[in-house]
Amino acid sequence: MSTINVPKREEVSSANQAIFDNLEKAVGFVPNLYATYAHSENALGNYLNFANASTSLKAKEKEVVNLAVSEVNNCIYCLSAHTAIGKMNGFTDEQILELRAGKASFDQKLDALARLAKNMTENRGATDTEVLDNFFAAGWTKENLIDTIVLAGEKTISNYIHSTTQVPVDFPIAQPLQAVEA
Fold first, then answer.
1. From residue 5, how far is each of 38, 41, 169 by CA, in Å?
2. Which of 11, 26, 69, 144 could cross-link with 7 by S-S, CB 3.0 to 4.6 Å?
3. Cα-based distances in Å from 69 to 1, 53, 74
4. Nearest of 61, 177, 182, 180 to residue 110 by alpha carbon
5. How large is the angle between the packed helices 129-137 and 108-122, nearest 10 degrees?
6. What is 131-176 written as a DSSP string?
7. pLDDT single digits (tens) 11-65
8. What is the pTM of this model?
9. Which one-letter DSSP state was computed for residue 177?
């Protein structure tokens, strides 16, 4: 499979250059996957607006979804990025592996969220009734459900971009999931 280049700042539009500058200030670098969005005049700005939109999910809860969805979609870039972000949000290495497997033995509410994210992604949105019932029984709301579905869609976009372009991963590579029983 041929790879798509990661565009440099001087190779993108002025609007995307401004976004690159903002990412550089906020994150310290422009992640390769974000730079790849900049092959399009609009995709990077549209994606970042989508990814940073208001949601009922807290940052730590979003990482639960990001990890489970990225594992199902087999995206090493997003798994690596969200492993690093998960650690910044207080998850241990062992917890991150569990979340990638679609479970969370350490927290009943996060377990229901992880199971939902995994199940809906595996089933392309046709979530099993038992998984959905468990999600609501754990205290999640209909708003949380819709926000979780939207987040799974947003993460799938990045998963697909990396799976198609194969741009280099510029985060520490996530360890294989075989370290935890699925």
1. 11, 16, 12
2. 11
3. 23, 19, 8
4. 61
5. 160
6. HHHHHHHTT--HHHHHHHHHHHHHHHHHHHHHHHH-PPP-SPPPPP
7. 999 999 999 999 999 999 999 999 999 999 999 999 999 999 999 999 999 999 9
8. 0.94
9. G
